[in-house]
Write a structure and sequence with these properties.
534 residues; elongated; 15 helices; alpha+beta
Amino acid sequence: MIFGELPLGDAEGAILAHSVKHDGGMFKKGRTLTADDIGLLNASGVASVFAAKLGADDVPEDEAAAAVAKRVGAEGTKAQAPFTGRANLHAACHGLAIVDVERVRMLNRLHESLTLATVQPFAIVEEREMVATVKVIPFAVPRDVLEKALAIIGSEPLVRVAAFRDKRVGLVITRLPQTKPSIIAKSEEAMRERISALGGTLASVRVVDHDITQVTAAITEMNVLACDPILVFGASAITDRGDVIPMAVTKAGGRVLHLGMPVDPGNLMMFGALGEVPVIGVPSCARSPKLNGFDWVLARVMAEVKVAREDIMDMGAGGLLAEIPTRPAPRDGKPKPQRAPRVAAIVLAAGQSSRMGSNKLLADVQGQRMIRRTVAAMLQAADLTVVVTGRDAEEIAAALLGLPVSLVHNVHFAEGLSTSLRAGIEALPADTDVAVIALGDMPLVGPEAVRRLIAAYGPAEHRSVCVPVFKGERGNPVLWGRQHFETLKGMSGDRGARVLFEQLSDEIVDVEMADEAVLLDADTPEALEKLRRG
């Protein structure tokens, strides 16, 4: 790769490293310069640009990031389309992040151009939460580096999310003569909350004396009731394998796999098994909602991740969880995890087709009604799709029969496009992060174009309006962050949201597309014929 200040004569096909002004506006960093761009810059008096020019052995940043992201993640993850050399992986379920730490290190030690960051191994993640990100540092990765990275990954992905199972958990609580009822109630409530947070159900609870025979009988009963796992919360801490709870596990036909753990709080935990069912002696610190070593083990068990005694013994590094004066409240002020945006597509299908004579949205395009083809593409990329109808609402609804869409009728459709835009925004759920505003008469726009817009969205980096571009011309659909929803609702007349582009120029990112589909609509009979030809 050639990087540096290039004279315009050598800059065609180069990627801008810094934005550059011209008489018509500005070309932003990351733009691939065309012959027309060079002509405009030359006419504007620009003699050179800082840019990168890729060689035959360079793999472009997005291509490289996508290749690695596709292979890095496995079960329970979903890779996002790449943008500016970054491809994120998100959790597809609520579960436990499993990371192959050694191979992540191997990949990151290959070359400075390619990086992979993950959440902490065995972190509890929510659905849609980011679990890993692949980032290409320059504009390309040497081909041999990419090949080595893919060889390290091979057929065994580096990151997966083990989903929490709806397990039926059994709980045995022991008591001594001096044990207060409030302590028993607190123990049960603490376990119920922990189990529920991990997707399980506290199915059975038994309170017995702190006695080997009674605890043995309770563990056996829980096993007969098909509880998995079985938790034993003792009135007194477990201090030896000869203590009440370990002995009860053994007498019930089970085995104690490990006693104690190098995690504080949580040192006095016992891990055993009755057949294949885990039996855990709960440390007294678990009556508190604060994190302790038992939580680490319980999370693995609830996700059906095998726990060996060596796993528990290896928890010492990072296992000091106690909040002491030299390490105050480490979990206070914890930033919210990054997550995939919740995306709604709004398909505007209320127009009057005044230039067509008949409703163009019902026309046949390559074997499908135009509106059905447009909506089907949105459904593949968005979390939900809202279709705003106006003219011929019943016919539009019939054309979409069987598709999982929300239909919103705009009774004011004759007053202009802004009324349909408002109706669509108002129909969105409160947790919607972005809206992709699509025109019903653009049936050649595929789901990959929408995914690329979603990948470009980054409000923290002032990329809250994502506009598709083909050969320098802006098209549709356009993605809008929720911070602009009120502005969109406040528009009036027959104006599209593009009138906001100038005032929101600092929030706009142009997203280069692979084909002209984002420019092709069916405003005229001639345009419709072009769409039919594909």
